[in-house]
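in:
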């Protein structure tokens, strides 16, 4: 069932219940349902309906969700992006000619919008977590998200009387899922649109549940307020964080997944990751290997990437899929012990950054001959993106200001390098490609040939 239909149902049963609380407005379910219908009628007048992809980049999170659910109601596929993206960046994602919404949709009066929806409808398109310099959108059928809602409710205890804080941008699939799940459940979604910073404690005074990435959990636990449950997705969660949550009286439900795969495994009590309901897991290792690739088979996986875009998602002939994450050998009934991404991807603060995509963008900076991007260890984020730049032969090293300007305009926040180095000549392998592992080793060893850019 479309999430918009859930909203209509809650509006009929509990019209005065708060549905969404954003920076500019709070709406009851009755008010929100009517707003969605009016926006859907506007989209249908524009010819945006079944089979269409609608690019949505609205700054206000309540208006953004209105557009998303109006598209869902009209039968289109909503694709949420950043409000600040320009036409070129949108064209990279969705192709030319795709309808784009960058302002609140107007209300159009008329009868309720109704259409028959199917579980296999391509109802959602979302971005992997900061993983690509050329934006990579993942398309999924309706049921691959909505049918998992009841399992998440069972695991977390989230219900219609909860107030759920979603403290991040909805361009992130983690936060988008959290907001839509909250509305499908009939709870109240608190949507600051970004990390609330100084107002976090005030938000937590009214919230019973929060969705966060691991490095934000310590901030939440400083002033837990009325919090009962923290749903934590992204990077691994250590036992110290769980102990701190226990001390604050907050239950933690942590999960592992990927935008392409949705839920794969969940840890409800600190005992380790076990398959999410409906998921089968295999770890495929070479004979005698210490680690292997994680493969999953479930109803929750996506349909793949929008357009002719390559990515880490792979499928075999039996319905198993993988994005290249690696783990220790696994047998059914055991705990899944993840060890990271096997393709060199950087896990930073719950986001996955593919080095090659950042490198492609930075190579366009004048004076850059080549560049290698790696992850440098960080105590709270897990890793930070680090760029090692080789000057174009015959040119002086590019200025850090130029590099950072390109990063700000062409990369998402998680992808932007936090540390910059310059090398006179990039170490290369026998095929002439940069030797990424050797560069990482030289940096770790403090090699003087790698000079920090001020």
């Amino acid at each position: 069932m479309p999430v918009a239909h859930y909203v209509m149902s809650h509006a009929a049963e509990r019209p005065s219940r708060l549905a969404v609380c954003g920076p500019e407005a709070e709406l009851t379910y009755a008010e929100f349902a009517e707003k969605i219908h009016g926006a859907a009628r506007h989209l249908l007048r524009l010819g945006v309906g079944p089979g269409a992809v609608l690019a949505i980049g609205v700054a206000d999170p309540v208006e953004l969700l209105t557009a998303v659910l109006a598209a869902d109601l009209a039968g289109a596929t909503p694709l949420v992006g950043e409000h600040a993206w320009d036409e070129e960046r949108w064209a990279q994602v969705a192709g030319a000619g795709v309808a784009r919404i960058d302002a609140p949709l107007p209300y159009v009066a008329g009868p309720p919008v109704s259409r028959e929806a199917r579980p296999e409808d391509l109802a959602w398109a979302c971005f992997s977590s900061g993983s690509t310099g050329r934006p990579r959108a993942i398309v999924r059928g309706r049921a691959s998200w909505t049918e998992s809602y009841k399992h998440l409710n069972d695991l977390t205890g989230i219900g219609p009387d909860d107030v759920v804080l979603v403290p991040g941008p909805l361009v992130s699939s983690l936060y988008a899922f959290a907001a839509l799940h909250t509305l499908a459940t009939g709870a109240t979604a608190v949507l600051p649109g970004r990390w609330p910073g100084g107002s976090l404690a005030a938000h937590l005074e009214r919230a019973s549940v929060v969705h966060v990435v691991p490095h934000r959990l310590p901030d939440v636990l400083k002033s837990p307020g009325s919090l009962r449950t923290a749903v934590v997705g992204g990077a691994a969660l250590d036992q110290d964080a769980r102990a701190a949550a226990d001390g604050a009286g907050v239950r933690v439900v942590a999960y592992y997944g990927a935008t392409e795969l949705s839920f794969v495994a969940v840890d409800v009590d600190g005992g380790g990751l076990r398959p999410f309901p409906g998921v089968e897991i295999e770890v495929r290792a070479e004979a005698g290997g210490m680690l292997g690739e994680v493969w999953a088979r479930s109803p929750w996986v996506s349909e793949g990437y929008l357009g002719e875009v390559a990515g880490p998602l792979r499928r075999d002939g039996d319905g198993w899929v993988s994005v290249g994450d690696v783990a220790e050998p696994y047998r059914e009934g055991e705990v899944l012990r993840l060890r990271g991404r096997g393709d060199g991807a950087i896990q930073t603060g719950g986001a996955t950054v593919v080095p090659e995509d950042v490198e492609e963008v930075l190579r366009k900076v004048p004076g850059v001959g080549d560049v290698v991007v790696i992850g440098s260890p960080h105590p709270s984020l897990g890793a930070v993106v680090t760029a090692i730049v080789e000057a174009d032969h015959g040119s002086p090293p590019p200025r850090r200001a130029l590099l950072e300007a390109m990063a700000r305009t062409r990369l998402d926040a998680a992808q932007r390098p936090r540390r910059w180095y310059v090398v006179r000549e990039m170490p290369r392998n026998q095929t002439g490609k940069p030797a990424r592992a050797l560069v990482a080793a030289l940096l770790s060893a403090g090699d003087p040939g790698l000079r920090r850019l001020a």
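note: The CA atoms of residues 168 and 243 lie 24 Å apart.
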